[in-house]
């Protein structure tokens, strides 16, 4: 018998060996394994070549395990159970089980966009749980760096060390107002309209609010600020109750709109980027990638690109 100085054992052959050992017969082992007898014999011969010693003594009408076979059988005890456990672990990893997907998103996205994306996502990874919380970009960044969440969904942010920022959607800012408001009769709202009508504006302390304020300053305009809304979703209720115009974004308006409130595009105001924030250098989880795909699909369904006529 040729001895292999560097055996590379095949787990399947070890299982065949154990079945032969337990049945004391190659024919019986073949029946249990639902394999052809010559195939079982060939695997046994290869295994003996790999380990470098005989496993069975061939006697007339029967086989007997060698001393080495008894040792090998004892050493491989529990092999089947361990393989089953490993296979179950592989199935769990493939399905994303074991650890929930932890998401923190801007509150404005949690009314419709994120739930719709999670519904699509769960069809891809049905055995995985997700946890959803809302938070500002600064809260998301802190939670990501602390390892408390897997992904954040926020508005435009500057590149930061240790973070991977993926643009997902150009989110338009809109003017929301009661349908009876004077400006509701216009098809578009200008920056100058905010200087002539009381309005609710985003907080200058927030990234969006800072950008809006800078836009008015560059235009040489001073809006008639009636109140400040730190969260875009609050602006719609304020506009309704105060009978004024408010700046919010298209994602919020779509989720909270009703027959009493209308929106109009704002001329001259920049769009904001909706982004996914992750920790740079972390191994990519399939469940996270699947969520990003579902999020993008939801955005495309909610805001389809206009078809250009030829």
Question: How many distinct helices?
Answer: 12
Order of helices and strands: HHHEEHHEHEHEEEHEHEHEHEEH
As residue ranges, the low-confidence spans are none
Number of domains: 3
Walk me through the structure.
By secondary structure, this protein is of the alpha/beta class. Helices cover 44% and strands 21% of the residues. The protein contains twelve helices and twelve strands. The protein has a five-stranded mixed sheet, with helices on both faces. Strands 9-8-10-7-11 form a five-stranded mixed sheet, sandwiched between helices. It has a two-stranded antiparallel sheet with strand order 1-2. The chain starts with 10 loop residues before the first helix and ends in an 8-residue tail after the last helix.
Topology diagram in text:
Blueprint: H1 11-23, H2 26-33, H3 37-51, E1 56-59, E2 62-65, H4 67-75, H5 79-95, E3 101-105, H6 113-124, E4 130-134, H7 137-145, E5 151-154, E6 163-171, E7 173-178, H8 191-196, E8 198-202, H9 207-218, E9 224-229, H10 232-242, E10 245-249, H11 250-256, E11 261-265, E12 272-279, H12 286-302
Parallel strand pairs: 3-4, 3-5, 8-9, 8-10
Antiparallel strand pairs: 1-2, 5-12, 6-12, 7-10, 7-11
């Amino acid at each position: 018998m040729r001895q292999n100085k560097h055996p590379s054992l095949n787990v399947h052959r070890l299982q065949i060996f154990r079945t032969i050992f337990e049945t004391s017969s190659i024919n019986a082992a073949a029946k249990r394994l639902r394999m052809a007898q010559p195939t079982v014999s060939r695997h046994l011969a290869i295994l003996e070549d790999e380990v470098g010693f005989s496993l069975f003594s061939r006697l007339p009408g029967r086989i007997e395990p060698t001393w080495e076979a008894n040792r090998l059988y004892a050493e491989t005890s529990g092999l089947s159970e361990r393989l089953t456990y490993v296979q179950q672990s592989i199935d769990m990893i493939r399905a994303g089980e074991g650890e929930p997907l932890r998401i923190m998103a801007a509150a404005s996205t949690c009314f419709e966009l994120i739930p719709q994306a999670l519904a699509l996502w769960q069809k891809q990874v049905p055995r995985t749980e997700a946890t959803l919380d809302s938070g500002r970009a600064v809260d998301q960044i802190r939670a990501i760096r602390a390892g408390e969440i897997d992904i954040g969904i926020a508005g435009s942010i500057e590149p930061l060390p240790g973070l991977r920022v993926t643009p997902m959607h150009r989110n338009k800012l809109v003017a929301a107002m009661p349908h009876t408001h004077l400006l509701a009769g216009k098809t578009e709202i200008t920056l100058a309209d905010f200087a002539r009508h009381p309005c609710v504006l985003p907080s200058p302390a927030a990234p969006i609010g800072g950008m809006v304020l800078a836009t008015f300053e560059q235009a040489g305009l001073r809006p008639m600020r009636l109140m400040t809304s730190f969260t875009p979703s609050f602006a719609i209720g304020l506009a309704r109750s105060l009978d004024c115009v408010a700046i919010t974004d298209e994602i919020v308006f779509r989720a909270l709109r009703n027959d009493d409130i209308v929106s109009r595009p704002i001329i001259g105001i920049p769009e904001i980027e909706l982004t996914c924030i992750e920790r740079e250098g972390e191994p990519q989880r399939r469940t996270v990638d699947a969520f990003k795909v579902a999020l993008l699909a939801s955005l495309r369904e909610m805001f389809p690109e206009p078809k250009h006529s030829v």
